[in-house]
């Protein structure tokens, strides 16, 4: 995370390793997570403001892709908003570096994945690429434009079959 230098990626200020748990210190983001911020301020933003926030997220994600990283957990809960409505991608706990090959993928053997925000092929084959992050970005756009949780009427275990029917 410390190697990232982009206006739409959260800035790492420091790490405290002398105690458990290890603590990560980042820049202060006054408005907290994007999902909570939008719920609290529902209907108060113009389309131009919302598009500006989404553009910033897209810019940050392009930067990660250019740096050969896959985020794997992009969701409005992992985007932080400052006082100027600048959105910054955060929470790199699931992110992984990819090989320099543009066709590279990170394959996971286990662990939990955020089903509602994950591309169907990433769920099916457990392979994550920049393209699967683009899918997640699309879900973030959906979250920002009726301010809803994706597939809220469907349980997490039922999301994959539903996606297969729609696409």
Automatic annotation (TrEMBL):
Subcellular location: Cell membrane; Early endosome
Topological category with respect to the lipid bilayer: Single-pass type I membrane protein
One example of a Gene Ontology biological process annotation: axon guidance
UniProt KW keywords: ATP-binding, Cell membrane, Endosome, Kinase, Membrane, Nucleotide-binding, Phosphoprotein, Receptor, Transferase
MF terms in GO: ATP binding; transmembrane-ephrin receptor activity
Organism ancestry: Eukaryota, Metazoa, Chordata, Craniata, Vertebrata
Coiled coil: none
InterPro entries: Ephrin_rcpt_TKs (IPR050449), Kinase-like_dom_sf (IPR011009), Prot_kinase_dom (IPR000719), Ser-Thr/Tyr_kinase_cat_dom (IPR001245), Tyr_kinase_AS (IPR008266), Tyr_kinase_cat_dom (IPR020635)
GO CC term, one of those recorded: early endosome
EC number: 2.7.10.1
Protein name: receptor protein-tyrosine kinase
Pfam families in alphabetical order: PK_Tyr_Ser-Thr (PF07714)
Main localization category: membrane
Top-level taxonomic group: Eukaryota
Gene3D superfamilies documented for this protein: Phosphorylase Kinase, domain 1 (3.30.200.20), Transferase(Phosphotransferase) domain 1 (1.10.510.10)
Record-annotated Protein kinase domain positions: 1-167
